[in-house]
Recover the amino acids of this structure.
């Protein structure tokens, strides 16, 4: 029989920053209805397959739960069979959390989205409505619209005239589209989080342009009755050396203010040898760059998505994270901008995060190290902001949910976030 921890015990562990993986074994759709803030959704089958990647340290505290479906014992037995020694069940499952009067969150990637809402509330991130942006496009105004989502999301649907610049690439590449300070940069995503974080990234970095978010992203655009483009492929392929150097200086200053530290190969070896702490290693460049060559043991996690989906990539809350932006030749654009900006956000989200700098041993791999998990269609939660055929009521309800996240964070009181 698996040992149990009460909801209050788990909350205490989160508050004192003990390393903890709180794993929801249900389907993603069920998870999206209700879960604790720092829970990560991993089905029993996925956990058996992905445990060495997701839970690198075999003696980390793992707490499993369901909502009465009877999933915990088999999953716990599987983990114990793989050598995990500190496996517990959440006492009375999700009901135990609820009955303890603790906060429950909806949707997926909830704490990243809640953090984004906190950033907007604290920094008053500037934005404009879909109707205002449409008018600027019609007038031929001096604007550059940058889409901060993954390229495949942009390719599915996008704001007219926009260019794909995924989140961690913004400080590096946005000014290649808007080299004149008089050009206004407009950042959009599908909903709110990546627009807010992307806009605030450029503002934190002190770019000379006016920068605003498209309020509510493609959801807001659609609710305004305006048409999206599809199958667009606009990207920023090259950045002038002068702009790249400027971006590096700006990103480094932001990361320094967030408390990020920089390490080399010697320090990375020390961290790797520390058996008392979980260590995640992420390469935050584009998927194409990662596939062309990356450092051994570094997993591909494009920086914007790592900030958006932190619970998926790093389920052990309280672990250390090392980021790399080092390419196969470390030439041209690979100057650490993306690692620094990603690290600045993770640090504000309460992570101990370090950035790896060169020189490092030139041992590169081209095989992917466990790419981001691909979820099957069974039990998948249909995001109200994906695709082009979502009901208006679902999109509006999603926005209303996001607006309430700051108040939920205050009630939950375990997050430890700060905002520059």
């Amino acid at each position: 029989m698996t040992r149990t921890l009460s909801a209050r015990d788990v909350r205490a562990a989160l508050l004192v920053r003990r390393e903890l993986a709180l794993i929801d074994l249900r389907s993603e759709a069920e998870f999206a209805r209700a879960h604790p803030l720092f829970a990560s959704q991993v089905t029993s089958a996925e956990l058996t397959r992905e445990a060495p990647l997701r839970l690198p340290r075999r003696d980390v505290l793992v707490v499993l739960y369901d909502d009465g479906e009877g999933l915990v014992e088999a999953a716990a037995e599987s983990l114990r069979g793989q050598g995990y020694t500190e496996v517990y069940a959440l006492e009375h499952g999700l009901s135990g959390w609820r009955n303890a009067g603790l906060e429950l969150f909806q949707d997926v990637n909830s704490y990243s989205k809640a953090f984004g809402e906190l950033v907007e509330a604290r920094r008053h991130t500037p934005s404009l409505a879909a109707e205002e942006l449409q008018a600027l496009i019609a007038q031929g105004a001096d604007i550059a619209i940058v889409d901060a989502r993954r390229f495949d999301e942009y390719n599915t649907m996008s704001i007219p005239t926009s260019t794909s610049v995924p989140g961690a690439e913004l400080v590096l590449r946005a000014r290649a589209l808007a080299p004149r300070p008089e050009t206004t940069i407009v950042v959009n995503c599908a909903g709110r989080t990546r627009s807010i974080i992307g806009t605030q990234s450029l503002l934190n970095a002190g770019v000379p342009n006016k920068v605003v978010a498209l309020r509510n992203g493609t959801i807001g655009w659609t609710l305004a009755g305006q048409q999206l483009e599809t199958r667009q492929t606009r990207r920023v392929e090259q950045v002038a050396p002068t702009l790249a150097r400027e971006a590096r200086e700006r990103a480094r200053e932001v990361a320094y203010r967030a408390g990020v530290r920089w390490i080399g190969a010697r320090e990375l070896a020390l961290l790797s040898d520390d058996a008392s702490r979980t260590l995640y290693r992420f390469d935050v460049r584009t998927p194409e760059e990662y596939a062309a060559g990356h450092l051994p043991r570094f997993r591909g996690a494009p920086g914007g998505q790592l900030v958006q989906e932190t619970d998926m990539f790093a389920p052990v809350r309280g672990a250390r994270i090392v980021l790399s932006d080092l390419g196969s030749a470390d030439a041209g654009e690979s100057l650490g901008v993306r690692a620094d900006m990603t690290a600045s956000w993770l640090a504000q989200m309460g992570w101990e995060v370090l950035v790896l700098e060169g020189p490092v041993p030139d041992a590169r791999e081209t095989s992917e190290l466990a790419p981001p998990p691909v979820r099957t269609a069974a039990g998948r939660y249909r995001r109200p902001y994906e695709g082009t055929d979502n009901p208006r009521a679902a999109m509006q309800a999603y926005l209303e949910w996001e607006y309430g996240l700051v108040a939920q964070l205050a009630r939950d009181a375990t997050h430890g976030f700060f905002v520059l």
